[in-house]
Amino acid sequence: MTADEMYTAGRQLEASGNVGDSPEVERSYRKAAAAGSVEAMSRLGLLLEGRVQAQLEGRSEYSGDFVEADSWYRKAADRGDTWAAFALGRLYADKFNDWNAAVPWFSKAAAQQQPGHWQAKERLQQGPAGVERRRADARYLDELGDRASSRSGTGGGSGGCMVAAILLVLPEMLALLSLPGYFA
């Protein structure tokens, strides 16, 4: 199997949305990354960071192996992956609480016209205050989900939680759409 085929197999398995598949997804990404797939390096960083698991479980808060995620993001970013540079900046800002270390990675991503560049530009514009706002939003969404789960007796959220989530991000999305060059 080629690196691209291993990456695609892992990506398809991840897309199935089964939390129990995470170990196999990680094995596929590790093999593909070791064989040189930059996409697998980025995705492995995301998986190790804990974001994939949290998404599959419907949580906004997450934790994982941030040090190893850093290593894989860095390898991908050093090979020109703009999204990995953004993810590395986000990791430094959000999880390592080091805005100064995040800025060069956000700047590197913002300088490109590839996936991740507009998010990096936004993060640079918002600065450290944006990090704190996102943390507060994530805690609020998790609390809403917990309350909805306890009321409904299910592990999933509710329509009310989704509405609250949309209302929280709607102003930010509208602001992004009004940025000059957004559709360029």
- Estimated share of beta-strand residues: under 5%
**Coarse morphology:** globular
How many strands in all?
A: 0
Give the H and E element order.
HHHHHHHHH
Largest sheet: none
Enumerate the spans where pLDDT stays under 50 for 5 or more consecutive residues: 154-167, 175-184
Spatial extent as radius of gyration? 17 Å
Mean pLDDT: 79
Structural class: mainly alpha
What is the first-to-last residue Cα distance?
37 Å
Report on the architecture of this protein.
This protein is mostly helical. It has nine helices and no strands. It has helices at 3-15, 22-34, 38-49, 51-56, 66-78, 82-94, 99-110, 117-152, 159-177. Helix 6 (82-94) packs across helix 8. The longest helix has 36 residues, at 117-152. The chain is globular. It starts with a helix and ends in a 7-residue tail after the last helix. 32% of the residues are buried. Mean pLDDT is 79; it is low at 154-167 and 175-184.
